[in-house]
Amino acid sequence: MTWMITGGAGYIGAHVMRALTGAGERVVVLDDLSSGAARRLDPGVPVVRGSALDGELLARSLAEHQVTGVVHLAARKQVAESMARPSRYYADNLGGLGTLLEAVTGAGVERFVFSSSAAVYGTPDVELITEDTPCAPVNPYGETKLAGEWLVRAAGRAHGMSTTCLRYFNVAGCAAPELADTGVFNVIPMVFDRLTRGEAPRIFGDDHPTPDGTCVRDYVHVADLADAHLAAVRRLSGKPAGDLTLNIGRGEGVSVRELLTLIAEVSGDDRAPLVEPRRAGDAPRAVACARRAAEELGWTARRDAREMVGSAWRGWLAHRSPQPAEQY
Ligand SMILES: O=c1ccn([C@@H]2O[C@H](COP(=O)(O)OP(=O)(O)O[C@H]3O[C@H](CO)[C@@H](O)[C@H](O)[C@H]3O)[C@@H](O)[C@H]2O)c(=O)[nH]1
């Protein structure tokens, strides 16, 4: 089998590429390097430089590399940007996926793994989010992920393709400094960025209905997430498997205050945080029930929050972004 990884030069895609090649899978990367970084690529892995919106290139590359399965990660992923530019998100995330699925089914590819997100759930008021928790996204990014899942399942049913949708919770850390997340769009890099500038980290609300008043999230190490993709690929490589949708998280909540304590320990910078008003659209708590992934894939996350923060800090020191391209 040969797996095409779209977005393989991105933060998550490069970790997936390493997990698959490290386990002996044959891989080809498709990436237009618009937000991915060439330094994350592996010289031993062929790269098609182009976009998932380019149907002709896709058809040619799938045939040339005899691709038998696709892991689709290439997408826009900033919530705030999706609210400012919804049509761009719909066009790129769903347009790209539609074009890719046309090419993939036309080429007879029988296995497809889709990068989805906990953003499909919106802000449910539950202790643990299961895959049966109703989906009610609260921003265009989450909407494109939910509609993307529908598209993937429909194509699977129509063309006899086995599909797996992985709903990632809060992804953090890195397996090696060169693979680090260099964008400043999530809490850990946002706090690192503040500390590096000599500013206090911010807490968006300490009056949430949670034990310490700050938001609780399910942080999952990107290397564990990559292992989940490997497990999904292995499962699909066996007998035809229909469609499957899985939460990918640890099933454990970490509050913003707990995270800041870990960051202070790792960075050696323990300045007191500033408490700011709540951020619009933030759920007080978003923690996965991770049981179905354990049952279906035999996968559970192994790395804890300290390992995520420590590896993220080392990656930040090595490759921090001078200035993100656009801030919202
Ligand atoms: O300086 C900061 C930055 C963030 N937060 C809080 O930290 C938590 C995590 O925020 P963030 O890292 O922005 O993640 P989420 O808002 O939980 O969303 C992330 O996780 C979702 C999946 O659960 C993905 O869909 C999104 O793409 C991804 O941004 C939230 O409670 C924020 O209010 C702070 O208190 N201070």
Automatic annotation (TrEMBL):
Enzyme class: isomerase
Keywords from the UniProt entry: Carbohydrate metabolism, Isomerase, NAD
Pathway terms, separated by semicolons: Carbohydrate metabolism; galactose metabolism
GO annotation, biological process: galactose catabolic process via UDP-galactose, Leloir pathway
Gene3D superfamilies: NAD(P)-binding Rossmann-like Domain, UDP-galactose 4-epimerase, domain 1
KW Lyase (keyword) present: no
Molecular function terms from GO: UDP-glucose 4-epimerase activity
Catalytic activity: UDP-alpha-D-glucose = UDP-alpha-D-galactose
Cofactor: NAD(+)
Matches recorded under InterPro entries: Epimerase_deHydtase, NAD(P)-bd_dom_sf, UDP_G4E
EC number: 5.1.3.2
The keyword NAD is assigned to this record: yes
Domain of life the protein comes from: Bacteria
NAD-dependent epimerase/dehydratase domain segment(s): 4-249
Homology family: Belongs to the NAD(P)-dependent epimerase/dehydratase family.
Protein name: UDP-glucose 4-epimerase
Originating organism: Streptomyces uncialis
